[in-house]
Amino acid sequence: MTAAYDSLLAHLRETHLLTGAAALLAWDQETGMPPGAGDERARQLALLARLQHERRTEPRVGEWLATCERDPDGDADRAANLRELRRDFDRARRLPAALVEELAATESRAQLAWVAARAASDFAAFRPWLERMVDLQRQKADCLREPGHPRWDALADGFEPGMTAAGLRPLFAALRPRLTALRERLAGGTPPADALARRQVDEARQEAFVRAVVAAMGFDFHRGRLDRSAHPFCTNTGGDVRLTTRFRRDHVLDALGSAMHEAGHGLYEQGLAPAHRGTPLGEPVSLGVHESQSRLWENHVGRAHAFWQWCWPLAERHLGAAVAGFAAEAAFAAANRVEPGLIRVEADEATYDLHVLVRFELEQDLLDGDLAVADLPARWNELYRAQLGVEVPDDRRGCLQDVHWACGLFGYFPTYTLGNLYAAQLAAAADRALGGLAPWLARGEFQPLREWLRENVHRHGRRLPPAELCQRATGAPLSAESFLAHLERKLPTVYGL
Amino acid sequence: MTAAYDSLLAHLRETHLLTGAAALLAWDQETGMPPGAGDERARQLALLARLQHERRTEPRVGEWLATCERDPDGDADRAANLRELRRDFDRARRLPAALVEELAATESRAQLAWVAARAASDFAAFRPWLERMVDLQRQKADCLREPGHPRWDALADGFEPGMTAAGLRPLFAALRPRLTALRERLAGGTPPADALARRQVDEARQEAFVRAVVAAMGFDFHRGRLDRSAHPFCTNTGGDVRLTTRFRRDHVLDALGSAMHEAGHGLYEQGLAPAHRGTPLGEPVSLGVHESQSRLWENHVGRAHAFWQWCWPLAERHLGAAVAGFAAEAAFAAANRVEPGLIRVEADEATYDLHVLVRFELEQDLLDGDLAVADLPARWNELYRAQLGVEVPDDRRGCLQDVHWACGLFGYFPTYTLGNLYAAQLAAAADRALGGLAPWLARGEFQPLREWLRENVHRHGRRLPPAELCQRATGAPLSAESFLAHLERKLPTVYGL
To answer: Staple partner for A105: which of A9, A46, B214, B281, CB 3.0–4.6 Å?
Structure first.
């Protein structure tokens, strides 16, 4: 029994080396790969994906699992690992290796096509890639789903175990009226000035500033890097965690927010137990929980009044003359302006989830065949008008803004909303546990918060299902209450109400 | 028959994807990997090495080969591919997968240990790694060699097919007296001033200058990059060729020479036929020939009088005030100063091969057990005194200067000397074919030389054995004559003789 378990873990750890290698190849593709290397890189990533899939679905993996399952003894760690491995194995076995390989190659190529198409705001150039991708995702969903179950659910379950479209709809329905009421209330107040956010700041200065904040958060540069890419992301190449952000001369708060967001993801990855690397206990439990870590640092720290007490002197030191004449209060206000916009990643806390809702509707329709890819831009623009009240001027700022569908991430977007809810509930629990977060943030002492998250979230890996993790860490099941209360408390103050 | 050949090539091409992935991981290790990632990276590289080895030595590869060999028909390309594949297969089959994997892991780790040990000039810290490496190399040589044959030859054959210690000794014996006579002759002249080489030049300016030269050489940045590393190198991640150089404020000619050297390697890699990628016809034929490409650009172009006619205005433009008051003549002179020194990669053309000779002697003794690793520093210093007449002040500038042994490259150094000889003979042949190289270089028109090399060297891959390639391209077998004539013609002029 022990021999089977040990063999299983050794096999998984070795497979995980390929996962890390593939992550590095994908990181390089986004940060520095020369353009002419795209085709070969797609082949390399496809092969690594197929090799990982073959190793994960080898018959002996099933035999080791079955042997272990016949012996219910062993500690809780072992039981949790086996539970999660059974889930992974059964899911992986449903996918043919050829489909996995073709998906990986198409993801890599479609991503490069997306970069070019977005730059040119040319949906027609991206359309064949998206059509191919939708087709492959439907095939994938058909392999995974039980007969009659929604395709979307089968894909979403890979990102957030147990998440279904039917389960999400009431959540969105609960969020919408209170967010709308909040916006109406804010309309009676004074919008904060955003002059600071629009100052022209040298990119090298922005980078030094952002690096100082990320280091203060406790991101370990001994086992990580911070680079630049078109679309900020965080990836784990095997204990070596890589963040990216982007710098725009006229939007220093965007660089900061993106970097704090990705560093939140990075702290989660760096907080996973190295001893469990390559096994479920050393992996993030779900993308919703992952997103809770990024959103907590981005919003509950980076957009907090207390944070700017500490951060403003740092900003002054790094950004110099460009921000002269402003103060902490101005930064806090600029970071909390609420304004329905076109771009999800630039959205404020009160409208962000409406962007998610649009994508959630669209990807279900694409998978079910109720929406043709050719009709996507028009339908996108229609939903933005209805949900956010904005007119989309071009596809670059419309349906070409996100890389996700090019990367094969269908059923993924709603994990952002779950992340917002988890984040608020975790921040409230940490606030109670630490006797108030504000004094720590105001002094730039992030260690107590980071350690609380490490203890209550990171170190568990996939030991507890997301719902149980939430219950244990916060004392309650997930709800929208903490999130809404947080916004209803903070934003009216900003608007002078 | 065709089916077997097609299967064989498809299998090789797929295996080659892992080679490219491993090259990227190794590139990243040298250019940007955070220090804490070294252990996991070593594991990743070891697994990729084992997977490649397993795929190359699968029984079905032997079966496909045997089937193809039973059918002697087919074109010359096929015959050349099969000849080289047989060589590769038989060689690979002699190495156990476990040894290949352990070598890869030790190479990756020993390299990181070497970086730290060199920085601290701490041989004791590197010693256990080198002991382990020598032991593994002896095991490897014992797997590869015929009974009674030298270990060194078995390893060298992997870098330069057919190269043996016995074959090299007369070559070194022929070089030494004429190089010594040349140095004695130069001693009666006036050493060129090296004030230019010692000017303090901002690194960013150096980089812009070096990039302009590398681009003018025709290196394709659409399928390549230029980065920084402690030890300059060139690697091919699968059609995407990556060069590194280094910048020192007080040595702009070092950055230029290193970059031109690596770009010479890079042009060879980029000149291989993409249609043959992953098969012998798409691979460099030997490391001696590879080095001929780097040395040709570094020395026969970058240290040529005519080159500086073109390059000096470019240098002035990029380096600015730091080089004000100098002229093309000063740059040419500074690039051609002959002075026995401590560091191989900084050596002039007339003493470089004496550095190689030292290493050639030492690695034979290490492999044969005639020299203990513990005694290496003393023996190294003794040989430098005897061969170059210099006193080694510390191990950083002594036996810790080169990464090669840490990387498992035993039997490799003499390919540098072969490269010098090939380079001179190829440069002379190109000079004849193009009606004199100088006028082209003086105008910065490098295309005719590059195309001549592409036509006569690059595009062949491993189609012709090195000796035949040399005969066809230059009309003569390899000898030291062109190299010595080149130095005896150029250097006395520089020394005013």
So the answer is: A46
Q: Is a pLDDT exceeding 80 seen at residue A1?
A: no
Same structural domain for residues A329 and A280? yes
What CATH number is given to the structural domain containing B428?
1.10.1370.30
Considering the domain architecture, whether residues A117 and A182 belong to the same structural domain is answered as no
The nearest CA of chain B is from the CA of A494 a distance in Å of 41
CB atoms within 10 A of CB A140: 23
pLDDT at B1: 62
ipTM above 0.90, yes or no: yes
Rg of chain A taking only CA atoms, in angstroms = 22
A313 and A216 co-located in one domain: yes
Of residues A207 and A71, more confidence is placed in: A207
Per-residue pLDDT tens for B437-448? 999 999 999 999
Tokens found for residue A24: 């590095």
Please indicate if any CB of chain A lies within 8 Å of the CB of B71: no
Rounded CA-CA distance B282/A316 in Å is 55
Predicted pLDDT of residue A424:
98
DSSP B281: G
Q: Do B21 and A225 touch (CB under 8 A)?
A: no
The conformational region for residue B138 under phi > 0 = left, psi -120 to 50 = alpha, else beta, is alpha
Task: Say how far apart CA A260 and CA A448 lie, in whole Å.
Answer: 17
CB contact under 8 A, A44 and B239: no
User: Hey, is the C-beta of A14 within 8 angstroms of any chain B C-beta?
Assistant: yes
**Residue B443 three-state SS:** coil
Tell me the C-alpha distance between A379 and A285, whole Å.
34
Contacts of A44 in chain B (CB under 8 A): 17-18, 20-21, 238
List C-alpha distances in Å: A485 to A298, A425, A449, B334: 17, 10, 20, 72
In a mutational test of the A interface, the residue from B28, B276, B277 whose CB has the highest number of chain A CBs within 10 Å is B28
Average pLDDT over residues B62-67: 97
Q: Is the pLDDT of residue B189 over 90?
A: yes
> Do residues A131 and A182 both lie within one domain?
no
Q: Is A220 within 8 Å of chain B by CB?
A: yes
Tell me the DSSP string of A281-349: GGS-S-HHHHHHHHHIIIIIITT-HHHHHHHHHHHHHHHGGGGTT--HHHHHHHTT-----S-GGG--T
In terms of domains, do B211 and B321 share one?
A: yes
Q: Write phi, then psi, for B250 (nearest 5 degrees).
A: -105, 20
Nearest to A296 by CA among A472, A482, A131: A482
Q: Catalytic pick from A101, A107, A160, A262?
A: A262
Q: A131 to chain B, minimum CA–CA distance in Å?
A: 27
Report the distance separating Cα B267 and Cα B271, nearest Å. 6
Q: Which of B41, B47, B240 sits opposite A33 (nearest CB)?
A: B240
Q: Is A99 exposed, middle or buried (0-12, 13-18, 19+ CB in 10 A)?
A: middle
Contacts of B493 (CB under 8 A, 6+ apart): none
Q: Are A428 and A474 in contact (CB under 8 A)?
A: yes
| Tens-digit pLDDT profile for residues B384-406 | 999 999 999 999 999 999 999 99
**B197 and B311 assigned to the same domain:** yes
Query: What pLDDT, in 10s, does the model give residues A236-259?
Result: 999 999 999 999 998 889 999 999
Task: Quote the domain boundaries for residue A96.
Answer: 2-144
pLDDT band at B255 (very low <50, low <70, confident <90, very high): very high
Choose the mutation target among A41, A54, A236, A242 for the interface with B, i.e. most B CBs under 10 Å: A41
Q: Which token pair is B269?
A: 């890699």
Residue B159 inside a domain? The answer is: no
User: What would the pLDDT profile of A150-184 be if each residue is shown by its tens digit?
Assistant: 999 999 999 999 899 999 998 899 899 999 899 99
Overall pTM > 0.90: yes
